[in-house]
Hints:
Layout: H1 2-12, H2 24-31, H3 35-47, E1 52-54, E2 58-60, H4 66-87, H5 93-105, H6 113-128, H7 134-147, H8 151-154, H9 161-176, H10 180-204
Amino acid sequence: MELINRIKEDILNNRLPMGVALRQTVLSTRYEVSRIPVRDALQALKAEAWLVPHGKAGVMIPKLNWKEAEDLALMRAKLETLALEFAFEHIRSTHLDEAYSYLRKLEVRDLTLLERGNLNWRFHYAIYRACDRPTLMRSIEVLNIQASRYLGFQFGPLGYHNHSQQEHNEWLELIACHDKVAAVQLLEKHIISAGERLTEHLKKA
C-alpha cells in the first residue's frame, strides 16, 4: 500500500509523465524496490483507473479529461444524494462526531493531496455509512477513488479548499437539525458545483 500511495502522490503532483508508458525497471529504481511490488502496484492502480493499458502489456497515466471529470461529478451527485436519503433517518450523534473529527483534520495545512483526498472521503463516508447499503457504498467509493485523480486541480489552481470546508460545516449543521431536504440539496450543489468548476478549468487547459 505504501508504494501505491507513493506512486499516487507522484501522479497528483505531476512528478510522473502522463500519456507515456511507465517502465517497471525505471519505477523499480525510482522507488528502490524490486520489480515484483512495482508490478503489483501498477496492477492495483490500473484496477482503480489511475492507470490505463498502453501497448501490448504496458500502462500509462491517462491525461485528465473534462468529460471524465463531468461524468464523475454527475454520477457522484446522483449516488451520494441517494445514499444520504437512505441514511438520513439512521444518522446518530456518533456519525456526526466522526464526521466532525475528519473535518478538523482537513484543516491541517501541510496535508499531502492524497491525505486530503482520503480524509475528504472518510468525512463523507462517516455520514453515508448509516444507509447500510454495501453495494451502493462500494459504487460510491469507486467513483471517489477515480475522482481523486483530479485533487491537484481542486485544491491547487481552483483553490476550492476553504469553500469546500464551509459547505461541509453547513451540511453537518443541516443534518444535525434534521433538515433532510436542505441537506440533500446542499450535498448535490456541493458536488455539482465543484465538478462544473473543474470541468470548465479543464476545457480551457
